[in-house]
């Protein structure tokens, strides 16, 4: 035999159960909800396993420049950017002299028609060299690659001063242009390595400002 409540008592019983549930199970506070969410996030992160293939070691050049940016002070960076401005001024001044005197050199060998040829070849090789040079910067390091470019541009200037034919002058222009583009590229990479994103465009424009003086 089953006992049933009268229909008139059902709404009251339901209301009593609802009120008792509200009293027995209070809502968690805001602090408790934050703690619960943090614990859930920690458990979710701990369950994610990073594959060993993705743990790649940094290359020597990248690791060294990251270590450098950790220890350099603001004063060191100001001095470095000042020296970069001087280097860019020397590059702009020397390139202006070389490109201005190229027609006179080819004319002295009575091969004025090769003026455009020497310029195109040197510019093409200098532009293509940026691709492997970027990898050299990462593998060997910024200072080592920069010294190679200084040696290249110096060799080009020495060959220009002692050339006796257009072929030697063309080869000298190649060495000069490779060193020129490499040094300019190194300066841009250095600014990108040592500057924040909000100041990077201004600093790159600052290092390129010597061309306003020499043009």
TrEMBL record:
<feature type="transmembrane region" description="Helical">
    <location>
        <begin position="78"/>
        <end position="99"/>
    </location>
</feature>
<protein>
    <recommendedName>
        <fullName>Major facilitator superfamily (MFS) profile domain-containing protein</fullName>
    </recommendedName>
</protein>
<dbReference type="GO" id="GO:0005886">
    <property type="term" value="C:plasma membrane"/>
</dbReference>
<dbReference type="GO" id="GO:0022857">
    <property type="term" value="F:transmembrane transporter activity"/>
</dbReference>
<feature type="domain" description="Major facilitator superfamily (MFS) profile">
    <location>
        <begin position="80"/>
        <end position="215"/>
    </location>
</feature>
<feature type="transmembrane region" description="Helical">
    <location>
        <begin position="111"/>
        <end position="133"/>
    </location>
</feature>
<keyword id="KW-1133">Transmembrane helix</keyword>
<dbReference type="InterPro" id="IPR036259">
    <property type="entry name" value="MFS_trans_sf"/>
</dbReference>
<keyword id="KW-0812">Transmembrane</keyword>
<feature type="transmembrane region" description="Helical">
    <location>
        <begin position="174"/>
        <end position="192"/>
    </location>
</feature>
<feature type="transmembrane region" description="Helical">
    <location>
        <begin position="145"/>
        <end position="162"/>
    </location>
</feature>
<keyword id="KW-0472">Membrane</keyword>
<dbReference type="InterPro" id="IPR020846">
    <property type="entry name" value="MFS_dom"/>
</dbReference>
């Amino acid at each position: 035999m089953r006992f049933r409540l009268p229909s008139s008592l059902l709404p009251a019983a339901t209301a009593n159960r609802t009120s008792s549930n509200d009293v027995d199970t209070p809502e968690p506070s805001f602090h408790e909800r934050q703690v619960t969410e943090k614990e859930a996030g920690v458990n979710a992160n701990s369950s994610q396993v990073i594959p060993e293939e993705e743990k790649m070691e940094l290359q020597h050049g990248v690791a060294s420049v990251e270590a450098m940016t950790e220890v350099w002070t603001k004063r060191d960076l100001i001095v470095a950017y000042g020296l970069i401005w001087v280097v860019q001024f020397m590059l702009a001044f020397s390139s202006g002299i070389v490109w201005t005197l190229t027609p006179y050199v080819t004319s002295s060998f009575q091969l004025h028609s090769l003026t455009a040829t020497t310029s195109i070849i040197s510019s093409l090789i200098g532009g293509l060299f940026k691709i492997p040079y970027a990898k050299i910067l990462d593998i060997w390091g910024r200072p080592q690659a920069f010294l190679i470019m200084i040696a290249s541009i110096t060799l080009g200037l020495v060959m220009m001063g002692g050339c006796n034919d257009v072929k030697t002058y063309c080869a000298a222009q190649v060495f000069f242009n490779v060193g020129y583009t490499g040094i300019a590229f190194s300066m841009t990479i250095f600014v990108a390595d040592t500057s924040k994103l909000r100041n990077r465009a201004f600093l790159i424009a600052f290092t390129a400002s010597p061309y306003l003086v020499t043009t």
